[in-house]
Each structure stands twice: as C-alpha cells, then as structure tokens.
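User: For my dataset I need records formatted as: sequence, then structure tokens, nothing else. Please produce one.
Assistant:
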Amino acid sequence: MNLNPNVIWRKGDGEIPERAKPVVESAQDELLLMSLQLPLEIVDMIRSNASENTQTIHDYISAIVVGYFKTAL
C-alpha cells in the first residue's frame, strides 16, 4: 500500500480498500454511460431505476442485457 496519505489505492496494490470502492464504482458507472452514448433522458432513467433498485448502474444494465438474452433464447 502507498504510504502517501493523499493516495488511497493504486493499481497493483491488491484489493481496493472499502472506502475507495464507492468512488471507483461511480467512476466506472459514469464511463459506461458515456461509452453507450445514450440520450440524456435514457441516462437519467437508468440512474433513477438503478438507484430505486439499490444497484450500481453497471449491475442494472447487466441485468437488462442478461434478461434480454434469456428471452431471446
């Protein structure tokens, strides 16, 4: 682990500390939403639904995709 008090975690340090996980998950969720290039109304709906279901955006979108493929088979 890094001894600098301003650095919480760096790649290669092992598992992400619990206090850093919400920040990392939030950043990953925002990157996912940006990469999908969806209209703002849809992005807001995804955020709202994920929040209501107490899920990360990643988990919410994953559930939608898995559900779609299960019904397609």
